[in-house]
């Protein structure tokens, strides 16, 4: 027989004026290879159909199931209950707007952030539908792909001290995204253009460098390296602007 697990789950429905934030406790028998997705689905099916949480791919790809698991942001579909103690506390991610219980709206935050940083290839080249795709060096394509693996789950944002303190902080996820465009030869932006976007306290200079972001990233993105690279680049760009160097 499996362990008896105790789940303490944050409950609150902001749409319901009678609802107050509180914790509900559920008890469940652990099964083989049980993930938090399976456990939450069982709780919803067998105990409380009103429990709100988000899932889509169940394979660590869509990024929608992020929540705070015993104090640490992570993906519920990738978390096995056997890696956790008998008592499991689940909270919604902070920073993002709460939809209800464990469900938060990461989409609006990511859309606004991607718009702020211009998260697309900036080029004046005319689009020719008949042209062959431009070739890219394999090693460079792989370097770009490494940074493209972000699933926009929001774990790094939720774990970030600065993002929790200031609403306008762009976070490691935006810095990583900028780093991806800096590598891409098709993007014609210069360092001074990127400086306008992230050379501020909202961007790289608001980062305290404690690296909770990298610690919790379920895709193990090299956020520490990117923060270091961009901080140096933006620092150097600031110096060049100050002394009007080219
Ligand atoms: S290193 Fe910077 S971006 Fe990462 S969690 Fe700390 S303050 Fe946030
Ligand atoms: S960088 Fe990692 S933790 Fe942050 S949103 Fe992307 S996948 Fe999630
Ligand atoms: S359900 Fe898609 S990442 Fe967890």
Ligands in the model, by name, code or SMILES, are: iron/sulfur cluster, FE2/S2 (inorganic) cluster
The CATH topology annotation of the largest domain reads as Fumarate Reductase Iron-sulfur Protein, Chain B, domain 2
Write the CATH homologous superfamily of the largest domain.
Alpha-helical ferredoxin
Write down the CATH class of the largest domain.
Answer: Mainly Alpha
Q: Profile the largest sheet.
A: 5 strands, mixed
- Overall radius of gyration: 21 Å
- Helical coverage, percent range: 25-40%
- Number of beta strands: 7
Average pLDDT number: 96
Distance between the termini: 70 Å
Residue windows where pLDDT falls under 50 for at least 5 positions: none
- Strand arrangement, major sheet: 2-1-5-3-4
CATH architecture of the largest domain: Orthogonal Bundle
Structural class: alpha+beta
Number of domains: 2
Q: Report the β-strand fraction as a percent range.
A: 5-15%
> Could you state the order of secondary-structure elements as H and E?
EEHEEEEEHHHHHHHH
Question: What is the number of helical segments per DSSP (H or I, 4+ residues)?
Answer: 9
Shape: elongated
């Amino acid at each position: 027989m499996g362990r008896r697990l105790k789940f303490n789950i944050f409950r609150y429905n902001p749409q319901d004026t009678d609802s107050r934030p509180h914790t509900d406790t559920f008890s469940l028998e652990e099964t083989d290879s049980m993930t938090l997705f399976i456990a939450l689905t069982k709780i919803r099916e067998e105990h409380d159909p009103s429990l709100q949480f988000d899932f889509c791919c169940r394979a660590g790809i869509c990024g929608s199931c992020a929540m705070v698991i015993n104090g640490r942001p992570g993906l519920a579909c990738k978390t096995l209950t056997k890696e956790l103690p008998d008592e499991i506390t689940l909270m919604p991610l902070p920073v993002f707007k709460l939809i209800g219980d464990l469900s938060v709206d990461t989409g609006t935050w990511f859309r606004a952030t991607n718009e702020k940083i211009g998260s697309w290839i900036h080029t004046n080249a005319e689009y020719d539908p008949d042209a062959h795709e431009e070739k890219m060096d394999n090693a460079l394509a792989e370097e770009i792909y490494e940074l493209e693996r972000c699933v926009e789950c929001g774990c790094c944002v939720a774990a970030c001290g600065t993002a929790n303190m200031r609403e306008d902080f762009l976070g490691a996820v935006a810095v990583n995204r900028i780093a991806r465009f800096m590598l891409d030869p098709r993007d014609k932006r210069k360092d001074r253009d990127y400086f306008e976007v992230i050379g501020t306290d909202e961007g790289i200079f608001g980062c305290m460098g404690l690296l909770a972001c990298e610690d919790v990233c379920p895709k193990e993105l090299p956020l520490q390296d990117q923060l270091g690279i961009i901080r140096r680049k933006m620092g150097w760009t600031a110096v060049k602007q100050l002394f009007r160097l080219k």
